[in-house]
């Protein structure tokens, strides 16, 4: 594994940018969701959540879903092996084929256990796989099923899929950097079980099928097998997190950020970008922080030492967990308010050997970590003995990180937050039988934080679209 960047590599990436006459920017009203490159590596497509497709360099436009009614937002794009077409997939499993990409079926209109997050095509252009965030695989056309993580316990949600060049296997990657190999896909290493500065956002395979790259939200690159390291954005200041990666032949790669920024490394060329500056659900500036004043105005949280002293670590953990949009922050903070009053050192009130069967594994910290099994699971992730050192879980060092771990690793609560589905967030935290009063109170706080961002940042939020139950 290699994750480093020299000045020379960064300079090389900068020099790869073509002249202004070659590059062209365009504006989109919906956030970009993925990037795919042409066979020559001299162009690429960018897909947006509304199904819009934007072509750069020698990438030809073959059609899109832009301006058409979708049942769910588009989440990924995959190019055909010829580079003369592409597929889009939506969160509900809908598939849209353009150019020489063949339409071979979809999960649209069917019940899914988890949203679809990625797509990969076969070399023949006559098939493809969809992957859901729970690791479920759906195979269509000549794409064969080689296995999945569906129905199995994941430490973190799946974020992407990459196929082998033979079309006889595939890799899945989770947000904690875990890699799962199926068919003729070989395992070359992963970041699973290791500390990340930001969640992994995508995976792309080398042309030989003997290696792959992972990209994290901070732009960090992890190279395995015969995948060479050409540079990264790790350690650099980004306006918005990186959301995807695509390999360029065997000698470079492109990454795309949530604002449409494109970063080219190795032999990859820059040919333009989409500029996203929308409002609803968009990410906030990278240096935006939760403040005591914001908590007091939006949620009525009193300004105490237990609140203010925890804010530096809370903001850092939120950045690492990509809890970075009005909707995500609103869902996260309204949950922490109910659990701990947004106090990092909170200890469950009234938890004694006589009153609680799970004593001494009482609720602690921002998210009120409870039960011995959860202490052990968190300890395994952070490589700490929380079972025997329980007070560490409500320290400034670990309280916010454990809340982030719960939010993005053991669960994928950013996704329902993006859909303004606070009811689903609450049920994930408090159980499927959460009382109506709990759902209502949590949803009210959710709306209050959204209103705060509307009043202070001009973010347009349709409160009528919020799902509370």
From TrEMBL:
InterPro entries: Glyco_hydro_19_cat, Lysozyme-like_dom_sf, RCC1/BLIP-II. Keywords: Hydrolase, Signal. Pfam families: Glyco_hydro_19. It comes from the Bacteria. Residues 1-23 form the signal peptide. Gene3D superfamilies: 1.10.530.10, Regulator of chromosome condensation 1/beta-lactamase-inhibitor protein II. Residues 353-427 form the Glycoside hydrolase family 19 catalytic domain. One of its GO terms (molecular function) is hydrolase activity. This is Glycoside hydrolase family 19 protein. It comes from Actinoplanes subglobosus.
